[in-house]
Design brief:
With 376 residues, the chain is mostly helical. The protein is 68% helix and 0% strand.
Length: 376
């Protein structure tokens, strides 16, 4: 609702007194114009587009809440298959050396992007889906049917694809988040397998991680380490964060408007930092929403984190069931996206925003009895 509130027209006596609007008032005075009614946001068109961009995640969230467990499981399998396809497409992009296999015109040719315009977002997809593949593979150990081998094999193969894919993608955030994602995924897999003594299959699933990481370390470690060399190329996001903080203070307490970052940053960017590139986002989601929505966004974020903590507690302390397995995997996926948002903006990508909403809906169900408990 924040973008809609920021789009409500206000009388001149109110909006001209808001923080950060003095230059807008001065521009009108220099043009010989009287201030009229205007909204809180300084970029109404971008704020409206931001609201429209939220509709697909909202639809996904509401839809998942109404889906059955079987349908939800099939949806997550679709996500896993789509991720594998995206990695395979990325490998073809890297091998082609041209622009023809890239889905988006504004992208970095020569990178492993898959279906995304940015390699970092493909990395986010992989570390977010890793716990789902691991948990669904381990959950098959509870079944005493012959069809349990397929999820196990697929989980092990997906693990290898993720590790090798991240090595080829060379996303620094993806490489850093891989460790926590692996540890939490194995913990969730142990719970999904029944919390007992790890059997050969579960040990084999863990061994898949070790083998994949060892292989990648032996082959592709030097190029990955080059991405962490701060001397090779300056890191613009760290240098610009203080500028974003200073601009945020100018627009408190209401913010400049959702989606207005680009316009605001261009107005405060120091001349000495200008170059052929442009800083379209803060590359820190928390700083960006602080600039765009101020105190209201901060309060909403705190409320969200409280909700997230409570649902995680309910999901992880619950018994073993297919639904609880997906909820624990979703809690890990949410954490990976929240962590990546510290240095990037994955949730401003439509596909990842929808996946984030799917994970939120799955975790929301942790506050309800599972289907197995209802049936009992």
């Amino acid at each position: 609702m924040i973008p809609l509130v920021q789009l409500v027209p206000l009388p001149p006596a109110i909006w001209t007194g808001l923080a950060g609007r003095s230059e807008m008032v001065l521009a009108l005075e220099l043009a010989g114009l009287q201030p009229g009614w205007a909204p809180i946001t300084v970029s109404p068109d971008q704020t409206w587009q931001a609201f429209l961009a939220m509709l697909p995640p909202i639809a996904a969230f509401v839809g998942i809440l109404s889906l059955s467990l079987a349908t939800t499981s099939r949806l997550m399998v679709f996500y896993l298959v789509a991720a594998v396809f995206s990695v395979m497409l990325g490998a073809a992009q890297l091998a082609s050396g041209g622009q023809q296999l890239y889905v988006w015109a504004t992208t970095a040719a020569g990178s492993v992007n898959g279906l995304f315009a940015n390699r970092n977002h493909l990395a986010t997809l992989l570390v977010t889906l890793l716990p789902f593949a691991t948990v669904m593979g381990a959950a098959a150990l509870r079944r005493r049917h012959d069809d349990r081998r397929l999820p196990l094999w697929f989980g092990a193969v997906f693990i290898g694809i993720v590790v090798i894919g991240l090595a080829a993608i060379r996303s620094r955030a993806g490489v850093i988040l891989l460790g926590p994602s692996i540890v939490l995924s194995l913990l969730a897999a142990w719970i999904a397998a029944g919390r007992g003594r790890p059997g050969p299959a579960l040990i084999g699933l863990a061994a898949a991680f070790v083998v994949a990481i060892g292989t990648v370390s032996a082959i592709a470690l030097p190029p990955i380490l080059e991405r962490f060399d701060s001397q090779a190329a300056p890191e613009g996001r760290f240098e610009n964060w203080p500028i974003v903080v200073q601009a945020s203070d100018t627009y408190l307490p209401l913010g400049s408007g959702i989606g207005s970052f680009d316009a605001v940053f261009r107005s405060v960017e120091p001349l000495e930092t200008l170059d052929p590139t442009f800083f379209n986002h803060a590359h820190n989601e928390y700083l960006e929403i602080w600039l765009e929505a101020g105190w209201l966004a901060a309060a909403l974020l705190i409320a969200f984190l409280i909700w997230y903590g409570r649902r995680c507690w309910a999901a992880w302390r619950a018994g073993t069931s297919r639904e609880r397995d997906l909820q624990r995997a979703a809690s890990i996926g949410i954490l990976m996206m929240l962590a990546h948002s510290v240095v990037d903006y994955p949730l401003r990508t439509a596909a990842l925003a929808v996946l984030f909403a799917v994970c939120l809906a799955l975790l929301e169900k942790a506050g309800q009895p599972s289907e197995r408990q209802i049936g009992a």
